[in-house]
Hints:
Number of helices: 14
Shape: elongated
CATH superfamily of the largest domain: Dihydrodipicolinate Reductase, domain 2
Bound molecules: L-homoserine
Low-confidence stretches: none
CATH architecture of the largest domain: 2-Layer Sandwich
Number of strands: 17
Mean pLDDT: 96
Helix content: 25-40%
Largest sheet: 11 strands, mixed
Distance between the termini: 53 Å
CATH class of the largest domain: Alpha Beta
Amino acid sequence: MQTVNVAVMGHGVVGSGVVEVLLSHDKSIAVKAKSNINVKYILDLRDFPGLDYSDRFIKDFDLILKDDSIKVVVEVMGGIHPAYDYVKACLEAGKSVCTSNKELVAAYGAELLKIAGEKNVNFLFEASVGGGIPVLRPIAQCLAANDLYEVFGILNGTTNFILTKMIKDNMSFDDALALAQQLGYAERNPSADVDGHDTCRKICILASLCFGKHVYPEQVRTEGITKITLSDVEYADIAGYVIKLIGYSKLLDDGKITADVYPALVAKNNQLAGVDDVFNAVMVRGDAVGDVLFYGRGAGKLPTASAVVADVIDCVKHLQARKYLSWDCGFEDYVVDSKTVKTRLYVRAEVDDTLDAKANIFGIFDDAEFIIAGKDNNEVAFITPAGVEAELKEKIASIKQLRNISVLHVLD
Ligand code: HSE
């Protein structure tokens, strides 16, 4: 059996998991890849003495680039630089690349896929969305017969873990975040998780793949979970909803799309409502297949390594062929302003006089759905009827009695 040399760039949570899985599963992987896979180099600026494979660490990227025996490179460093420069150089040198780096794919996916195509090598990134959930390959291959028109889901394990711990275990936001970091779920800078940027990158990748044109993070309206209060959680619960951070994208009739990241009220009978802890779920809607839901662990060392190593095996199996995964470049007006799209909104606000405020709210929204929490705290909470978001927001702003207004989407 032939041996294929691979290099792993980055030995953090995911990188160490990739090396661990490749070494511990070497025999069964060799059968599936029809080749032995040898981890020849591990690139990291840090030292890792005392490991069984400490002798494989290098600090110089050029050793990988110039070594013709390295056919597949795993990039699990994260961030844009130097990841982009290294990945591009590897592809241009005729090496296949597998990455879990959603920031990289969301920013440069179309360009890197094009280079991979020109060089007849593979650029695979299954782990960049949904951690260990197989979702990108099934969308690209198994759903290829469909015109896909909607994709959305819970795409960030850390925020889902935090929200679940806050709701079910009454844990504070800070304690839940610290635990997510300890478990290896959170990004190096947890703002990427809690401010929604990680979900934004993942919906960019999903929308690019589903609808065929690159969606850039700057085109996606992004809101995180930091403004969610336990009061919102309680009102949502009373009204029959849970709050989840959602990445959402939809194809419109004119060929453009919407793409958003927001915390939303999700009805308890919606399949996404039961997706808790570090789990993610991605709903894809196609004209032939209908609804397809992908579910599994969205973050963590071994679930993510599972997806990366599967890509490595695929690359090794296809050293002489290409996986046809690609999309075109995007354009400036491709993503429309979602404020022009119909939605329902949840509103919570402070008021001086609850009865007076309610009368005024009914004057503006005659079928508003009030949420009665049974607490006397000069606060009102209600759900608007469906309407164009910008118009709903104008109407809400016109209700003079409302102060410190908090608005969330309702996922319908
Ligand atoms: N920080 C990410 C998450 C890691 O929590 O989902 C996996 O992409």
